TrEMBL record, chain B:
SMART domains: CBS (SM00116), cNMP (SM00100). Gene3D superfamilies: CBS-domain (3.10.580.10), Jelly Rolls (2.60.120.10). Keywords: CBS domain. PANTHER family: CBS DOMAIN-CONTAINING PROTEIN, CBS DOMAIN-CONTAINING PROTEIN CBSX3, MITOCHONDRIAL. It comes from Marinobacter adhaerens. This is Cyclic nucleotide-binding/CBS domain-containing protein.
Length: 242, 624
C-alpha cells in the first residue's frame, strides 16, 4: 500500500458532513485529521448559524502547477460580525521563483520572501483558524486548488472542503453581464463581478491597499451584503456552497 | 493589530475623536472591532437592550430616536452612536435604525471603557458631544431639512457633458457611454454664444430611437426634447425635487442666465435623501403590475410621516404627495396602454382638485377626467377609453385613492369628452352660471393635465383665465360658494365644536380651515386672470394685481401654512400611533401655542370671507 491512498470516488460522492467523517479516518497528517474531525455543518444549516472564514491567497500566478502561494489572509466571521481581533496574515516563501510582475502587484518584495517561513511551518496556525468553519472566497479557482497542491507537495495528501464563492453569487445575479451591441448603444455597460466592482454595487467602501488580509475582509463584507440583499439569514448553507 | 488592517485604521484616524488618539490605542481599538453590514431600515439598537457596544459608521447613515419615537439625531460616515448607554452603564435609551445600507464597526464595551480611561480626549468627546447634540436637536428646526437649506448647485459633481444638436445618434450614445452619463445636453452656437437647445436621455434613446428603429446616423435633434424644464442655479434642492415631481422629468439642467452650470439627475437627489418621495416615485415607474404599485402605496404614508418629522413645509409636503399621486396615475396609464394597445385618438388625462393644486395629503379620493381629441367618435373609440379609465380608476383605488363619491372620474361618460365639449362646459359654467351647478363643478377650476396631450388641459386653463375675470356673475356665485363653510370660531375667540355624531367635540381642519381658504383664494385668482393652480402660487399671482393689499396676502399665506401644517401634523401623529388619519382635531390635543395661533389663523379666514362677501356679494347685488 502506498503512503497516500487517493480519496475514492465513493467518498467524493458523500454529502460534506459524511465526507469529512470518512476523510478524518483516512487522513494521515495530524493537521488534516484534526481539520476533518472538527466537522462540517449539515447542508440544511441556516447561513446565520454557520461559522465562516474568509480566505484570500496572493499567488505568483494563476496556474496551480506553475505558481505558488505568497501570502495568506483570513478572518473568521459569521453573518452577524467579522472579528478583526482574529484576523491573520502570513507571508510565506514560494517554492517557485517570484515573477517580477507579481512582485509589483502584491507589494511583497524579495526581501520579505527571503525571511518568510515555508507554508509547512505555519500550517498548524492556519488550520487553527480554518477548523470547524466554511471557507468563503472570491473566485473559487485559487484558494482551494492552491492549498490542495501545496499540501500534496508537503504532506503527500491533498484537502477537500466546500467553499462559498462570492464571485459565483455575483455571476448568478448578473447572467447577462456582457451587453449586446444594441444594449451598448442604449448605454448599457458590462457588469463587472470583480471584488471592488461587486462591492460598489452594495455601497461597500473602497479599500486603497491590496493584501490578502484586507481582501479577505472585503470578501466577508461582500457576503454579508449579498445575503442581506438577495438571500436571508435562514438560507441553508447547502444552497450557497460549491 | 495586523499591519494589513491599515485601511481600517486609516479611516478611523480621519475622524474625531480618533484623530488625535495615540497610535497604540488606535491599534488596540482596530483589533477589537467587529464589522457588520446592515440593510437600510434595520433596527441596530433596540430600546432597553443591554448596552454592550458602541458603533462607528464606516459607510452609510443611521437615525437615533428618543424614547417617544421622535427623531433625535442623524449620524453618518465617521460618526459614532450607542456611546450614551455605555457611558451611563444603563440599557439603551436612544434606539438606532440604519437609514441606508451601512457598514458598521462594533466597539465592545470593554474597549470603550479602556479608551475612556486611557484617553482624555476621547472621554471629553463622548461626554461633551452628547450635550452639544442635545442642544443641536433643539435647534433642529432651522437646519434639519438639508433639502430646504442646500442649493441645487451642491449636487453638481461633474463637468457638463454636451454635444452639438447636429451630432448623430450613435455618436451621442457613445459620448454618453464614455462619460458615464444618463443625459446629454445639446447645444447650438460656439463659445460664449452657445445656447442650450435640448436634451436626450437614456430613456429617449430607448423609447424614441431603438423602438422606432431609427438609423444610427439620424441627427440627434430629431429626437431631442426641446421643451426643456430647467432650474436656476440659486434654487434649493427641494425646488429641484418639486420640479421633477411635477414635470415628471429625471434630469434638470441648472442654468445661470444662458450658461449651463450642470445637470442634476433624479439619482443625485435620491442619493442625497435616500428615503425621499422621489425615491418612491422612481420606484413607481419600475413597477410592471398593479399589485406592485399597490405594494409601494404602503410606503406613501411613511414618506409623508418622514417629511413631517423633517419639518418640511406644507407646500413641499402637498406637492410631494401630489407628485406621488400623479406618478401612480401616470404609471397606471402606461400599464393600461400596454394592456389595451395604443389609444385610437390622442387624449389628455387630467387631475382635478387637490392633486391639481399640488395640495394633496395622505387621505384623499381620486378626482380625474379625460379630454379626448376632437376626432373622437364615441361609437368607435369610447369602448377603449372607458376600459382605460376603468383600469386607472380601479388601480388608483387599489393604491389607496378611493373612488370619488361625487363620481368626478374619467369613468363617468360626462367627464370623458372631446376638447370641444370641455370648452363648451367651461364656457357654459362661466357665462351662464347657476349656483347649484357651480357648487358641483368648482373642483374643475383646479385642473392640471398629467398625461398625454397636456396641451389640451393648458388650453382649458387659458380659456378659464381669459373668460372668468370678465364674468362678474360667475365670480359672484363662486364667492357665494366660498362662503358656505366658515371657520370654527365663536364669539370671544372660542372654538366652535361639532355637537353630535362621530366627531363630537372636535373641529374639522379641512372643512372649516384649509378648504374655505383655498376656495376664497381660487375666487381671487380667477378674478386676477391667473393660470396658477396651487394656492400659494395663486396668492403670488393675486399680488401682481391690486385686488388685495399686501398685508392681507401675507396673512392669508401664513394662515394657510399654519392650518395646513397643524392638519398635516395631526395626520402624521395618527399614522405613527397606528390610527387611521382624519381631519378632526380635539382642542385639548393641541399645544397652547398651536391653539393660540390656530385661532389667529381662523380669524384671518373669517376676515377674508367678510372681505369676499363685501367685494362680490354686496356689490353684485347692486349690479344685478
Amino acid at each position: 500500500m502506498s503512503e497516500t491512498s487517493p480519496v475514492t470516488d465513493a467518498i467524493k460522492q458523500l454529502p460534506w458532513p459524511e465526507q469529512y467523517q470518512a476523510l478524518a479516518d483516512t487522513a494521515k497528517a495530524p493537521v488534516l485529521a484534526a481539520f476533518y474531525q472538527a466537522g462540517c455543518v449539515p447542508a440544511e444549516t441556516p447561513i446565520s448559524r454557520v461559522p465562516l472564514v474568509a480566505l484570500d491567497f496572493e499567488t505568483t500566478g494563476l496556474d496551480v502547477d506553475a505558481h505558488s502561494i505568497v501570502s495568506i489572509g483570513l478572518v473568521p466571521f459569521t453573518l452577524d460580525g467579522i472579528q478583526l481581533g482574529q484576523a491573520k496574515h502570513w507571508v510565506v516563501r514560494p517554492r517557485l521563483p517570484l515573477h517580477q510582475e507579481s512582485v509589483t502587484f502584491h507589494g511583497i518584495t524579495h526581501a520579505d520572501i527571503h525571511e518568510a517561513p515555508d507554508l509547512s511551518d505555519i500550517l498548524e496556525d492556519v488550520f487553527a483558524s480554518l477548523n470547524g468553519r466554511i471557507p468563503v472566497v472570491h473566485f473559487r479557482y485559487i484558494e482551494r486548488p492552491f492549498l490542495n497542491t501545496a499540501l500534496k507537495a508537503r504532506l503527500d495528501e491533498g484537502i477537500r472542503f466546500p467553499v462559498i464563492d462570492t464571485m459565483a453569487i455575483e455571476a448568478h445575479l448578473h447572467p447577462d453581464r456582457k451587453p449586446s451591441f444594441l444594449q451598448r448603444l442604449m448605454g448599457k455597460r458590462p457588469v463587472s463581478i470583480r471584488l471592488p466592482d461587486s462591492r460598489r454595487r452594495y455601497g461597500l467602501p473602497h479599500y486603497a491597499s491590496h493584501n490578502a488580509l484586507i481582501d479577505s475582509i472585503a470578501t466577508a463584507e461582500l457576503l454579508q451584503a449579498q445575503i442581506h440583499h438577495h438571500f436571508s439569514p435562514d438560507t441553508p448553507i447547502g444552497d450557497l456552497w460549491l | 493589530m495586523q499591519a494589513e488592517l491599515i485601511d481600517i485604521r486609516n479611516h478611523l484616524v480621519q475622524h474625531p475623536p480618533f484623530k488625535d488618539m495615540p497610535e497604540e490605542l488606535v491599534n488596540q481599538l482596530t483589533a477589537s472591532i467587529e464589522i457588520v453590514y446592515v440593510r437600510a431600515g434595520t433596527q441596530v439598537l433596540e430600546i432597553g437592550q443591554p448596552s454592550t457596544e458602541m458603533y462607528y459608521i464606516r459607510s452609510g447613515a443611521a437615525e437615533i430616536y428618543r424614547r417617544s419615537g421622535e427623531l433625535y439625531n442623524r449620524v453618518g460616515e465617521g460618526e459614532i452612536f450607542g456611546q450614551f448607554g455605555l457611558l451611563m452603564q444603563r440599557p439603551v435609551r436612544f434606539p438606532a435604525k440604519a437609514l441606508e445600507d451601512s457598514l458598521l464597526y462594533r466597539v465592545p464595551a470593554e474597549t470603550f471603557h479602556y479608551l475612556f480611561e486611557q484617553d482624555e480626549n476621547f472621554a471629553d468627546f463622548v461626554e461633551i458631544e452628547d450635550r452639544s447634540r442635545l442642544r443641536s436637536a433643539l435647534s433642529r428646526r432651522e437646519k434639519s431639512n438639508a433639502l430646504m437649506t442646500s442649493r441645487v448647485t451642491r449636487l453638481i459633481s461633474r463637468k457638463t457633458v454636451s454635444a452639438p444638436t447636429t451630432v448623430r445618434l450613435q455618436e451621442a450614445a457613445r459620448i454618453m457611454t464614455d462619460n458615464g452619463v444618463s443625459a446629454l445636453l445639446l447645444m447650438e452656437g460656439e463659445g460664449d454664444n452657445a445656447r442650450l437647445k435640448g436634451i436626450i436621455t437614456d430613456r429617449d434613446l430607448r423609447t424614441r430611437a431603438v423602438i422606432d428603429a431609427l438609423p444610427s446616423e439620424t441627427p440627434v435633434r430629431e429626437i431631442m426634447t426641446e421643451d426643456l424644464t430647467t432650474i436656476r442655479a440659486s434654487s434649493y434642492i427641494f425646488e429641484a425635487m418639486l420640479s421633477m415631481l411635477h414635470n415628471n422629468v429625471h434630469h434638470l439642467p441648472v442654468m445661470d442666465g444662458h450658461e449651463v452650470r450642470g445637470v442634476v439627475a433624479l439619482s443625485d437627489i435620491v442619493k442625497y435623501e435616500s428615503q425621499s418621495s422621489l425615491y418612491l416615485v422612481s420606484n413607481i415607474y419600475h413597477q410592471q403590475h398593479v399589485h406592485g404599485l399597490k405594494k409601494i402605496s404602503y410606503d406613501v404614508r411613511d414618506s409623508f410621516v418622514r417629511m413631517v418629522n423633517e419639518d418640511a413645509n406644507s407646500h413641499m409636503i402637498g406637492s410631494a404627495m401630489a407628485g406621488i399621486g400623479r406618478s401612480f396615475t401616470h404609471r397606471l396609464l402606461e400599464l393600461g396602454e400596454e394592456k389595451l394597445g395604443p389609444p385610437p385618438v390622442p387624449y389628455c388625462f387630467m387631475a382635478l382638485g387637490s392633486m391639481a393644486r399640488d395640495e394633496q395629503l395622505v387621505v384623499t379620493d381620486q378626482d380625474n377626467a379625460m379630454i379626448l381629441d376632437d376626432s373622437f367618435v364615441p361609437e368607435e373609440h369610447d369602448e377603449y377609453f372607458l376600459a382605460l379609465a376603468k383600469f386607472v380608476s380601479d388601480g388608483l383605488a387599489e393604491c389607496g385613492y378611493t373612488y370619488c363619491t361625487g363620481d368626478i372620474m374619467a369613468t363617468n361618460p360626462k367627464w370623458r369628452q372631446p376638447l370641444r365639449v370641455w370648452r363648451d362646459y367651461f364656457t357654459d359654467w362661466i357665462e351662464n352660471p347657476k349656483a347649484e351647478a357651480l357648487l358641483n363643478s368648482s373642483i374643475f377650476f383646479d385642473l392640471d393635465g398629467i398625461y398625454g396631450r397636456t396641451d389640451f388641459a393648458e388650453e382649458l386653463k387659458t380659456l378659464v383665465a381669459e373668460k372668468a375675470s370678465h364674468s362678474q356673475h360667475f365670480l359672484t356665485l363662486m364667492a357665494r360658494n366660498a362662503l358656505n363653510r366658515t371657520p370654527p370660531l365663536g364669539f370671544f375667540r372660542t372654538f366652535v365644536l361639532e355637537e353630535d355624531g362621530k366627531h363630537k367635540k372636535t373641529f374639522n381642519l379641512k372643512r372649516r380651515g384649509t378648504a374655505p381658504l383655498s376656495d376664497l383664494i381660487r375666487v381671487h385668482a380667477l378674478a386676477s386672470g391667473s393660470r396658477a393652480q396651487n394656492s400659494f402660487e395663486r396668492l403670488k399671482s393675486i399680488a401682481k394685481t391690486s385686488l388685495i393689499v399686501e398685508d392681507d396676502l401675507d396673512n392669508l399665506r401664513d394662515a394657510l401654512e399654519f392650518i395646513s401644517i397643524v392638519r398635516i401634523r395631526h395626520q402624521a401623529l395618527s399614522l405613527q400611533a397606528g390610527q387611521e388619519p382624519d381631519n378632526n382635531v380635539r382642542p385639548q390635543d393641541l399645544s397652547p401655542f398651536e391653539r393660540s395661533h390656530l385661532k389667529d389663523a381662523f380669524q384671518v379666514v373669517s376676515n377674508a370671507q367678510k372681505f369676499l362677501r363685501f367685494r362680490y356679494y354686496n356689490q353684485a347685488a347692486r349690479y344685478v
